[in-house]
Amino acid sequence: MGKKYRRGNHGDRNSGASSSRRSALAVVPSAPPKVSPERVRLVVMLLTVGGFVAIAADCWMSWEGFRTMPIDWWIAAALTAIVAISQLGSGVIQAMGGAPFKGVGGSVSGDGAWGLTLRALYGLDIFSNFSGVGGAEQFSFRTLWADPGGTLGLLVWHLVLAVLLAFGDEILFRIRDRVAIGSQANQQLAKLRQIQLDAHNVTLRYYRQRAMQQAQAAGEKMSVNFDFLEGSDET
Questions:
Q1: What ranges do the domains of the chain cover?
Q2: Residue 42: band (very low, low, confident or very high) from pLDDT cuts 50, 70, 90
Q3: Which residues, including other chains, have CB under 8 Å from residue 93's CB and lie 6 or more apart?
């Protein structure tokens, strides 16, 4: 008995190949990205530079404020470094969705002590910035008695500056992280869009070559006559 061979279903094979092509084409999006990648990279770079500048400004103001206190310079430098580094770590914990005042002390009582310590560091940073911008020098009971409105206005203004310096780096870095992470899908969309445009340009280039070749072949087959020269001298 001879072997029986089952004839393959070429229609299913062709349909499978066409469906694969459709799936491959479906991966490439047709919509352009919402924001240009160049703008995203520029904003991320500016936010990164601005965040480090804000850290430097905060450290400088804290240093200037600690220098006005009756403490040695190395204590002022150590306090400035502790405040700046602890705020950076606290900002990262908050950006990741955690609570910097809890879960660090190891126990309930430890978290309570840790929370008070971290809040004291934030308060110390604001107070040192307040002293650094000159708020402590301009405030006195004599000036408050002589001009209460103006003195309180200056007090609030210097306090606002101190708070902005204390939290400015955290604000900039948090915005920077959201832009950098949130733009990843936009960046991939821009790359896929560029692939589409490059492929389309290649198609048009070869299409032009074929069109010129066919136009040349058609021109060679066309009959040539000079009827248009007849009657050229007629008025």
A1: 37-194
A2: very high
A3: 99, 100
C-alpha span between 140 and 200 (Å, rounded): 73
Taking the C-alpha atoms of residue 65 and residue 17, their distance in angstroms, rounded to an integer, is 73
The reported pTM is 0.62
Say which amino acid occupies 80: T
Q: What are phi and psi of 6, to 5 degrees?
A: -85, 130
Q: Which residue has the tokens 């990262």?
A: 92
The amino acid at 217: A
Q: What is the pLDDT of residues 134-158, one digit of tens each?
A: 776 666 666 666 677 766 777 888 8
Across 104-140, b (16+ Cβ under 10 Å) vs e yields bbeeeeebeebbeebeebbebbbbbbbbbbebbeeee
Please give the structure tokens belonging to residue 121.
């560091």
Residue 231: what residue type? G
* Secondary structure (H, E, C), 19-37: HHHHHHHHHCCCCCCCCCH
- What are the helix (H) ranges across the chain? 10-27, 37-67, 73-95, 108-132, 135-138, 141-146, 148-182, 184-221
State percent of the chain over pLDDT 70.
76
Q: Which of 205, 185, 180, 182 is nearest to 31 (CA)?
A: 185
Please provide residue 79's backbone torsions phi and psi, each rounded to the nearest 5 degrees. Answer: -65, -40
Token readout for 134 is 């000159």
